[in-house]
Amino acid sequence: MPFNSNPEMICHYFKELLSDGKEYSMPDIIEYVKQQHGDMGIDGNDLSKAIFESAIRNFLRSDNGEGEYSLVRRGKFQRLAPDPANVVNTVCWNMAMILSKAEQDLRECFGRLIRISEMPDETLFALRDTGKEVFSLLNQATQAVHTLQHSQNKDMNQCLGDGQSEGMKMTM
Question: Of 3, 28, 49, 111, which cross-links 24 as Cys (Cβ 3.0–4.6 Å)?
Fold first, then answer.
């Protein structure tokens, strides 16, 4: 089958592998794709783990239909029946990943701004206070996602993992 990109090819084989409803790890997925397509991507370059992770992460975020495919626990992917609980879990997981990335990006941005020594003290204090407020809002949003997921299905903790949302604090 001709593919237009490595992510398209990876996602095709990802869905093919998970069609049996069993759980698979990233090494399982990589091995399967390489058995089906070979070690080289469609562009002739090696298929790195990062390419696989990025393709699958983007697939789960955007092309996942009704949440059929999910990260069911740390490092394990599975095709699930598209029921409302799975959709909520997938949405929660995606929201948690977006919030986590936003926190990481904001920490980096605030860190760069703080290192600028020409800023007057009052500007640095205002920046610090704004940063604390932003991280407080991010923490509240993450906690809301965590609560939503747990209220939907108290026995499963696949959305945020083992307390990943806890501890978002701004220190400057």
Answer: 28
Q: What are phi and psi of 167, to 5 degrees?
A: 90, 10
Its pTM stands at: 0.48
Task: Report the distance separating Cα 51 and Cα 49, nearest Å.
Answer: 5
Q: Which of 137, 135, 112, 142 is nearest to 124 (CA)?
A: 112
Torsion of CA 86, 71, 93, 46, to 10 degrees: -140
- By C-alpha distance, which of 56, 59, 69 is closest to 20? 69
Place of tokens 């298929």: 47
CA gap 115, 102 in Å, rounded = 20
DSSP 39: S
| Sign of the CA dihedral with 77 first, then 82, 88, and 92 last | positive
The overall average pLDDT reported for the chain is: 78
| 76 bridge partner residues | 25, 73
Q: What is the pLDDT of residues 85-126, one digit of tens each?
A: 656 777 777 788 888 888 888 888 877 776 766 778 888 788
Asked if residue 90 lies in contact with residue 67, where contact means CB atoms within 8 angstroms, the answer is: yes
